[in-house]
Every structure is written in structure tokens, then in C-alpha cells.
């Protein structure tokens, strides 16, 4: 089983000086990378929506990528920079992909980042199921 990068123990023997350990503990906030923090915020939003709408969220797959592809999907007239929703087809489940760097560049602080992630996930779920986003989450867009 693979470990997350921020949970892996990385020790280096730099210039033959022996074992080195991290300068601060792995549970401290400074140890977390921006991508690890983003992944945690995505998981928190998925859990929150799964508690409210388990029948809508459970069959979906979620993924996080750094940047969107350079060409839009064939069915999209305009490329979506922050996320894409792929409908289920040929035995593969529906998938929602969030793009980390575009979302992070538009967010000024952690609260804005949480709200942007929430809005992207809710908009993608609504797009897949043909519903309005405020039906999925009444706080959408606030």
C-alpha cells in the first residue's frame, strides 16, 4: 500500500553526515503541502455532500489533477478551467475531475478555497444529474 507523500518518512544522508529527520513534526500545519491541503479540503466536501446525498455521491468517482488538459472535451463548447464532469459510459462510472492550480489561483485565502471547491463539486454533480446546483446545496454560490 502506498503512503501519501506527507506521511512518508524521508531521511537523507546528505554529504555523509548521517540520518536527517524533518525539522518539525508531521502533524504540524507547516509540514503539509499545498496539494495535500487541497486534497483534504476536497475530501471534506465530498464527505459533507455524501452525508446529505448518499445516492448521488456514492456512484461518482472524484479525482484531482494539477492543470486542465489543453484541448476541451468534444461535447464542451467552452473549456472549463476549474473542473470537468465526465458522464458514465461503457461500464465506467461518472467522474468529476477538479483542477487544483486554477482553483488555488482564484482563491485569496483558505476560506475562499473551501468555498470554491464546494461550488465546483456541487456544480459538477448538478451538471451530471441534470439538477440545479441550489437543489444539491442550498448555500451554492454564497
TrEMBL record:
Signal peptide region: none
Annotated InterPro entries: Zincin_1, Zincin_1_sf
Pfam families: Zincin_1 (PF06262)
CDD domains referenced in this protein's UniProt entry, alphabetically: MMP_TTHA0227_like_1 (cd12954)
Coiled-coil region list: none
Protein name: Peptidase
Phylogenetic placement of the source organism: Bacteria, Bacillati, Actinomycetota, Actinomycetes, Bifidobacteriales
Amino acid at each position: 500500500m502506498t503512503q501519501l507523500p506527507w506521511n512518508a518518512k524521508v531521511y537523507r544522508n546528505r554529504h555523509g553526515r548521517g540520518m536527517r529527520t524533518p525539522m518539525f513534526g508531521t502533524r504540524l500545519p507547516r509540514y503539509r503541502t499545498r496539494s495535500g491541503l487541497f486534497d483534504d479540503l476536497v475530501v471534506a466536501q465530498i464527505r459533507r455532500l455524501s452525508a446529505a446525498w448518499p445516492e448521488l455521491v456514492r456512484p461518482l468517482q472524484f479525482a484531482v489533477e494539477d492543470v486542465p488538459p489543453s484541448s476541451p472535451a468534444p461535447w464542451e463548447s467552452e473549456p472549463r478551467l476549474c473542473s470537468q464532469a465526465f458522464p458514465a459510459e461503457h461500464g465506467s462510472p461518472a467522474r468529476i475531475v477538479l483542477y487544483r492550480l486554477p482553483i488555488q489561483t482564484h482563491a485569496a485565502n483558505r476560506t475562499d478555497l473551501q468555498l470554491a471547491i464546494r461550488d465546483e463539486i456541487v456544480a459538477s454533480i448538478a451538471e451530471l444529474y441534470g439538477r440545479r446546483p441550489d437543489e444539491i446545496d442550498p448555500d451554492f454560490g454564497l
